[in-house]
Amino acid sequence: MTMLKINSAIGLGALLLYSLSSGCHTQAEQARDQTSSPLVELGRHLFYERRLSFNNDRSCGICHEQAKGFTDGFVRAVGTTGAIHPRNTLTLLNVSERRTLSWVDPSPVSLAQQLLVPLLGTEPIEMGAAESIDDMLDELNGDHRYQQLLVAAGATALDLDLLALSIAAFVSSLTTYDAPYDRFLAGDETAIDEVVKRGEALFYSRRTLCSSCHGGADFDQPMDGRHGWFNTGLYSLETGTYPSSRQGLYELTGQPSDIGRFRVPTLRHLALTKPYYHDGTGATLRDVLEHYNAGGRLITSGPFVGDGRTNPYKDPRIRPLHLTDSELDDLEAFLLALSDISIVDRMDWSDPWIRGD
Amino acid sequence: MTTLRTFFALPILCTSLIACGHDSSSRNTGGQRDDCISGGSATEVGVSEPVEEGQPLGRPQLPVGPDDALAQAACSLLGTVPTEIIAVADANSAGQVVVTPRQDTALSVRLPDAGVGYFTLEIPEWSITIATSLRYQESLVILDENCDIEPVQSVSWNGACDDSGLIDHRHLYHAWGSFTVRITGDANEPVHLSFMKLD
What phi, psi does A17 have (nearest 5°)? Predict the structure, then answer.
């Protein structure tokens, strides 16, 4: 019954989403089951552990804050030494469903591998633990709280492998498919209103082609099987370049055609994860929608003056949409209906050091 | 001082730009001011705002004397080579220009033609006080979306460097974050300002 209704109302794209979402609901349930596991609980403590940073002022959870959809709210991230990073912090919500984890690097990487980058990486320095990780682990092994957690997890001591494995287990549990739109797809007619439904129709329309890039259960996968890195016309400096520290896939390949190509980000939880874009220069969701409606971003002041609409490397699907203000309202409402804002109150995802549990 | 009183006021203004205190993404660290919670609005924290002669004055304008280390440092910063930035013309584009204050940061800000420019100030620490200095003819306002900023003293004339026309202001940033800064000045002349962190 529900499936037929969806099929007739919004077409194949939503049907595919429903199928994928249904599968992911199972994963979400599995993730919830995992939240009670000793390994996840150990990972939760380590995720919020400030003693894993050089200055004792950073943890995974500081820069991926629950109240901000596990982002940091900064335009661009700032490491423990105060250095500004070139890119905006990605959300960790549903990150276990991602095939790649970086704005620019398409190499598949496990969560356990990836989280060692902010922990130990030096270019840029994030947590700055590279020089002192052994001492840090020694300190944690001597902490009574961790001794209890380790026993519960069936381990005798915390080493780098177990640290990575347990934090990855916790991060994998940060999975939710319970946004208003999910509930609507599951049959709750009252979960979204008519404005959202109009936005949904626009999102899946040939007119906007939003879903051609933002497909899948997390709205981050191109529906046609193509790669997921695109130049969306955010900038156009000399010969179509982007700001020097933010060149996209080009930074890895050196191919001019890869200039400005960044991964397609998820559209889930946008209500919590502003600012937007790879460099955080999208202050509001409306700004982002207006950029897409114009077929690129025109910058008339500041250091990056240029017309992104004419960027020669821009994906051809980014073109003027001619949406009215009312239609932009509808589209914005639909995108916000992809956010599960209840996650900010989930105790099993919260900082155990603040709660004292 | 009399002259200063006629020119400066400290606006702690609440506007209706952004919903503050009702933002679902607002910080869970607490510490919001009462005016933020009840006002349902964003807060603009002014550093110096020129006012017309005869208008009601803001808080008393006291000089920061020559013995004040920060005031002296602000004077010294005037003589250093500043980091040059180009401000953008609208607040929503401020993320294109990001500045993080270090122990002492001197900036030369080129404004758009209208004489009003914006950039982003990223504060990567909690409970930190930052002194900001600029000339009295110019104004600087921080758009404090989450009401995390609190002035820790009234706007003051920097008496450590005579005739500099430098205004000193100090704010406590309760929580880290990105803040949009609006500067008003002469579009034909760069605005010189400094940020200094208090230890």
Answer: -60, -45
Q: Give CA–CA dist B116/B89, Å, rounded.
A: 7
Find chain A residues with C-beta within 8 A of B22's C-beta. Answer: none
Helix A194-203 vs helix A325-336: crossing angle, to nearest 10: 100
| The two three-digit tokens of residue A170, written as one number | 């916790």
Please state the pTM of the whole predicted model. 0.82
Of A84, A271, A301, the CB nearest to B112: A301
CB contact B26 to A (< 8 Å): yes
Query: If interface means Cβ-Cβ distance under 8 Å, which residues of chain A face chain B?
Result: 57, 65-69, 73-76, 78-79, 82-84, 271-275, 279-284, 287, 299-304, 341, 344
Q: Which helix (H) or strand (E) holds A23?
A: helix A2-34
Report residue A185 as tokens. 């797809």
Residues of chain A contacting B124 with CB distance shorter than 8 Å:
78-79, 82
Q: Cα–Cα distance between A262 and A279 in angstroms, integer?
A: 10
Question: How many Cβ contacts (< 8 angstroms) between chains A and B?
Answer: 87
Nearest to B138 by CA among B107, B183, B171: B183
Dump pLDDT digits (tens) for A238-262.
888 999 878 999 999 999 999 999 9
Question: Is B196:B104 a contact under the CB 8 Å cutoff?
Answer: yes
Start-end of H helices in chain B: 2-7, 34-39, 69-78
B181 contacts chain A (CB < 8 A): no
- Chain centroid, CA B53 distance in Å: 22
- Alpha carbons A73 and B26: distance in angstroms, whole number: 10
Whole-angstrom distance, CA of residue A213 vs CA of residue B194? 44
Angstrom distance (rounded) from CA A279 to CA A44: 28
Over residues A277-329, the pLDDT tens digits come to 999 999 999 999 999 999 999 999 999 999 999 999 999 999 999 999 999 99
Using one digit for the tens of pLDDT, what is the confidence trace for B120-168?
Answer: 999 988 899 998 888 888 888 888 777 788 888 767 778 787 666 788 8
